[in-house]
Amino acid sequence: MSIDAARFRQIIGHFATGVTVITTAHDGWLHGMTANAITSVSLDPPLVLVCVNVGADTHAAIEASGRFAINVLPAEAESLARRFADHGRLDKFQGVGWRAEISGAPVLDRALAWVDCAVVGAYPGGDHTVFVGRVLGADGRSGEPLLFYRGGYGRVTR
Ligand SMILES: Cc1cc2nc3c(=O)[nH]c(=O)nc-3n(C[C@H](O)[C@H](O)[C@H](O)COP(=O)(O)O)c2cc1C
Questions:
Q1: Binding site membership of 57 for ligand 1 (Cβ less than 6 Å)
Q2: CA-wise closest residue to 40 among 157, 133, 114, 143
Q3: Other CB atoms within 10 Å distance of the CB of residue 120
Q4: ω before 106 within 30° of 0 (cis)?
């Protein structure tokens, strides 16, 4: 059985996720993209992974810098998710508060949680690369997360 990309995207969209912005800094430039293909991998040592399209500008920047930060977005940050999903947009960070924590990858002030990483592995996965990151530092605060489900944004209702 084969399945085309559009149908696959539609089917896999039934799996509800949070929404993150993956960031890095390289050569004095900031890069970032919206991503939901992230997961924790290991507790000891603490490892995470993120799957990044090889065509994304952020892909080359992570490869070159060897570091990235995962910024988990709060429910009220849908506009940030849309902005950082805009391929090649040059003003993604304009007016966006951020700081460097450990690796130097931008940690967004509005993030509900952040995980700062050094790349310890990069594995080909079709049109994506699976970057495995060793966790250098992480923190979070209380609040509701932004969700992504079947192609649309949402929030938790209890
Ligand atoms: C909710 C959502 C989740 C996404 N998740 C991923 C992902 O996990 N990996 C990926 O490569 N692209 C993902 N994208 C697409 C990227 O955000 C998009 O290609 C972005 O434009 C890349 O930016 P850049 O090329 O400027 O680096 C996602 C987009 C949205 C809206």
A1: yes
A2: 133
A3: 12
A4: no
Domain that holds residue 120: 17-149
In tens, the pLDDT along 68-91 reads 999 999 999 999 999 999 998 999
- Do residues 132 and 119 lie in contact, with contact meaning Cβ atoms separated by under 8 Å? yes
pLDDT-derived band of residue 1, with 50, 70 and 90 as boundaries?
A: confident
4, part of any domain: no
Euclidean distance between CA atoms 86 and 158, whole angstroms: 31
Q: Tally the domains of the chain.
A: 1
Overall average pLDDT of the 134-151 stretch: 98
Beta bridge partners of residue 16, listed in sequence order:
none
Would you say the CB of residue 56 lies under 6 angstroms from ligand 1? yes
Distance from C-alpha of 68 to C-alpha of 60, rounded to nearest angstrom:
12
Mutate to test the pocket of ligand 1, among 9, 36, 83 (most ligand atoms within 8 A of CB): 36
Q: What's the CATH code of the domain at 98?
A: 2.30.110.10
Please tell me the pTM assigned to this model. Answer: 0.97
